[in-house]
Known about the structure:
- 44% of the residues are buried.
- The protein has helices at residues 18-29, 47-52, 66-76, 97-105, 176-181, 194-204, 228-246, 248-267, 271-281; strands at residues 3-11, 34-41, 58-62, 81-87, 91-93, 110-118, 128-129, 162-164, 166-167, 171-175, 208-219.
- Helices cover 35% and strands 22% of the residues.
- The protein is α/β, with parallel strands linked by helices.
- The protein has 2 domains: 3-222, Spore Coat Polysaccharide Biosynthesis Protein SpsA, Chain A, CATH 3.90.550; 228-290.
- Strand 2 (34-41), helix 2 and strand 3 (58-62) form a beta-alpha-beta unit.
- The termini are far apart.
- Helix 7 packs antiparallel against helix 8 (248-267), helix 7 crosses helix 9 (271-281) and helix 8 (248-267) packs antiparallel against helix 9 (271-281).
- This is Glycosyltransferase family 2 protein.
Amino acid sequence: MSVDVAVVVVTYNSEEHVSALLDSVPAALGDAVASVVVVDNGSTDRTLEILDARDDCTVVRSTNVGYAGGMNRAVAESPPARAILILNPDAALDAGAVPRMLTVLDRPGVGIVAPRVREADGGLSPTLRRAPTLGRVGGLSFTQRPAFAERIEDPAAYETEHDVDWAVGAILLVDSDCYRALGGMDESFFLYSEETDLSLRAADAGWSTRYTPDAGAVHVGGGSGESSRTHVMKILNRIRLYRRRSGPVRGALYFWLSVGVEVRRGVFGRGRSWTAVRALLKPSERPDVLGLGDRLIPR
Length: 299
């Protein structure tokens, strides 16, 4: 049997948040008919105990195959659906959010819908992004200049519905035909950049990513920190994404600019940036799960 929405979640040691997410789903769906599939990537806390005690979701046990791998498996385990609702376990949806997102998804050419997201304190979470470029490699969001800032900070940009290059993937509604046409998320990223890649490939295929302020959600992890390891993964995946889309010459420039950016941040006291510099310059220091081999410039 088919449903309106296939709700898909990937958990990994998510005991603190997953109940709040799943509790928010029924009111968020409104009259939409949905399935809920949670893929657990090998949690060692109480996540599976919490999930097994519920009767409102299908739980799939997995080894840690990464975020993209978990999402693709969750979609494969879901019934046919008009749309796929991608959710982080540390998110929670507002009542009626899904029908509002479905309305936007029905607009011609729209393949992905991103809602207005709040931080845990109720403040705006700036989830909208511009496509990566050489000028934006430094993450100079404070300039608020599009040529240098990938993250969109201007609150006015969050007041109206419009197309964006991509949006943070904590809460995304994706047209099922779009997801299938793209072959799902690229599992080679393991963690980080998979949502960037999905939106940019969707745009290549003629599907837009559209932001709507009419649907809301909270992302508790939106302002959370990251470890040195996850920071390294984020930097490496940004480089390989840019190289794949821009070619080896521009990819090499992006790589060396990234090295310079991390050195600068390290000099100013950001300790995990020195870990990133070592991983950038010494391939053996990189996380094995990314499968990057011994090439200096990630592919």
